[in-house]
Amino acid sequence: MATRRRLVLAGSAVLVLAAVGGLALWAPWGASSASPESPAAPVGRTVQVTTGTVAKTTTEKGTLRYPAVKSPTSRATGTLTAVPAVGTSLGRGDTVYEVDTVPTVLLLGTVPVWRDLSVGAKGADVLQLEQNLSELGYFPRVPDEEFLEPTAEAVRKWQKALKIPQTGEVPQSAIVVAPDVVRVGATPVAVETPVGAGTTVITLTAHAPSVQVMLPLADQGLASVGAAVSVTMPDGTLAPASVTSVGRAQVSGGQNSGSQSQSQDDPSTSRVVPVEIALTDPAVADGLQEASVQAAFIGERHDDVLTVPVDALLARAGGGYELEVIGGDASKQRIPVTVGLVADGVAEVSGDGLHDALTVGAASA
Known about the structure:
Largest sheet: 6 strands, antiparallel, barrel
Pfam families: PG_binding_1
Structural class: mainly beta
Helix content: under 10%
Protein name: Peptidoglycan binding-like domain-containing protein
CATH superfamily of the largest domain: PGBD-like superfamily/PGBD
Domain Peptidoglycan binding-like: 123-170
Organism: Rathayibacter tritici
InterPro entries: Peptidoglycan-bd-like, PGBD-like_sf, PGBDSf, TAT_signal
Radius of gyration: 32 Å
């Protein structure tokens, strides 16, 4: 459930509760009979009108983790002879694992590995191979979709660097494809364990951690791609972040809304929207594999407005609000104000005579 920030005002007998707007407002003793210019009422403390931002936020629980990218299965039969440590970053050309000391290497791209590649092959997977060989410095030509002799020559140079037989061909077992740099998330099979085709030998995750929040459906308008979010880390650090994706609504617990029409009609069923959030600086999560965090989504926001603490607002007898302006000679004058957005104990105000740095009265702290 959302934890919405609500104003809690501490004070003494100088506080009264206004029925308008749900605000706790202060009033001096005898304020109900005092005139707007009455100098007799004591002031708890003085504050200044300031120019700033008022923003409403909704805070949700989230999970910081490294999302799984893929879990490659071995296409070779033999003994697992090498696998990188959990947490290792793997990029283009890095070895993902070895079977019988023969490496399976990471290439970057999105075309799946579905066949062996050799001279005569044509297609998007050939283009992907050549692009990777070019980036690794083995293919000097412009990549295309044809596996010709220059491609085979580049493959042989690559194989020589890997210290494996220089065949000029690329079997399916030689490569794993991922869209970007990845991280080793788990190694379910120990080195020296026999493996066969189809054995899951490693789990690869995204290189950078992200936060997943299951946002209540009623609050889905807060999450749009690119929207700013503030994440509170386990140690209390506030980390700036932004929304990277918003999923389809689903029943709380993981069922997609598209397959549970009956649940959608049940008012007792909680429905949520999965939201992925990227940290601006992933380094703030160093040392964390998974952790519970808090994500604050910004709702309505007003910038460059005049603001006062909520406890500076006075309820007017006929409705509305006013401020008690304190002059340099300690004189007092009440002026009516219009209250705008209120959040986190701060109120947006406007009205004649208001300006930045104006001194006004407020309830005792």
